Amino acid sequence: MSRTVVLEAESGSITWRAPSNIALVKYWGKREVQCPANPSLSFTLSKAATTTSLKYENRPSDGISPTFEVLLDGKPEEGFRPKIQTFFERARPYLPFLKDYHFIIETSNSFPHSSGIASSASGMAALALCLTDLERQASPGMEDAYFKKKASFLARLGSGSASRSIQGPLVQFGKYAGIPESSDLYAVPYPYKMHPVFEGMKDAILLVDKGEKQVSSTAGHNLMKGHPFAQARYSQAVSNLDTLKPVFAAGDLDGFVRVVESEALVLHAMMMSSLPYYVLMKPNTLGIIQRVWDYRHSEQVPLCFTLDAGANVHLLYPRDDSAQVERFIEEALVDYCFEGQYICDQIGFGAKKM
Ligand code: PMV
User: Where is the domain boundary, 136, 161, 194?
Assistant: First the structure.
């Protein structure tokens, strides 16, 4: 993923919009540097996204890292600096021109920053795309396939799940024998058949808690080292990927619900059985889960939930059921949401240059 590139661009600006994604099979546990302990699979989202403009200026220096400023919604955001600094340090060997530049990174999210929706996947993907695009200026022959792979590779160095936010609609990250082209270094589009019932699948993100997480995902991944159930969990992720292949091909929604909900609960079970142990779900998370189960049982609608490393709940349902499910959300679930807030999103097709 490293090329000798001599950049001549003096100054300019590049803008990319990258979507968020929601994992169906969860990535939890990692090895150096930013390689997943198990393979994962996600739906790319459509509306929940980060737009980042990278303003660059060639400023030759003796330094080894680029200098940069970072703005969120037009205002300096010092809180983002450490993550971006670490990202630049990891990316340096693969983007040797970095040190010659000063960057102004202007970023904004389509969802409120304090909503508890993780912006690191979409944010790191958007930044990685801008930098790969800057590299492409010196290598105009760079093929699209290489461009996407490199952007995903770099995004991974910022946040593992960000590697899955370059393309869509279904994306695989981490080496998995069932997909020969898969890799621990970057994500690839899911190469197998997806039944039309999954096309346009909806994701309603119910905002349960907007507070800062007590335990970051980095800390959570680290707690999988020496975790008593780690090996069983990693094997389970692989077997869930095996199970999903015929589920996707046949449009087996019952099979889909079973794997997706189990994955969400196992992710949180890993947190609850880490040392130190912790719980990120809130009472309203469990309230929503119970209501979803009751509703699915009584209405026979294939509505299911999944969870990130947080208290918010993602509800997944086929497009054809959206009127009914969205009525149910309004009538029964908004009271569980922080200030009644939720975001209706759907499967998307990946990042776009603006
Ligand atoms: O990309 P990270 O390091 O924030 O880890 C993401 C972990 C989960 O969101 C919980 C699961 C996943 O696969 O996205």
Answer: 194
| Same domain flag for 97 and 226 | no
As a whole number of angstroms, the distance between CA 105 and CA 103 comes to 6
How many Å apart are CA 99 and CA 243, to the nearest integer?
Answer: 46
Residue 40 CB less than 6 A away from ligand 1 = yes
What's the CA-to-centroid distance between 306 and ligand 1, angstroms? 13
Indicate if ligand 1 lies below 6 Å from the C-beta of 120: yes
Do 315 and 239 lie in a common domain? Answer: yes
Residue of 24, 25, 28 to test ligand 1 pocket, by largest number of atoms within 8 Å of CB: 28
CA–CA separation, 204 and 313 (whole Å): 8
Spatial CA neighbour of 49 closest among 28, 23, 24, 19: 19
Q: Is 309 in the pocket of ligand 1 (CB under 6 A)?
A: yes
Q: Ligand 1: distance of its center to the CA of 40 in Å? A: 9
pLDDT digits (tens, 9 = 90+) for 168-226: 999 999 999 999 999 999 999 999 999 999 999 999 999 999 877 789 999 999 999 99
**Of 154, 175, 194, the domain-final residue:** 194
Q: What pTM was estimated for this model as a whole?
A: 0.96
pLDDT in tens, 64-101: 778 999 999 999 999 999 999 999 999 999 999 999 99
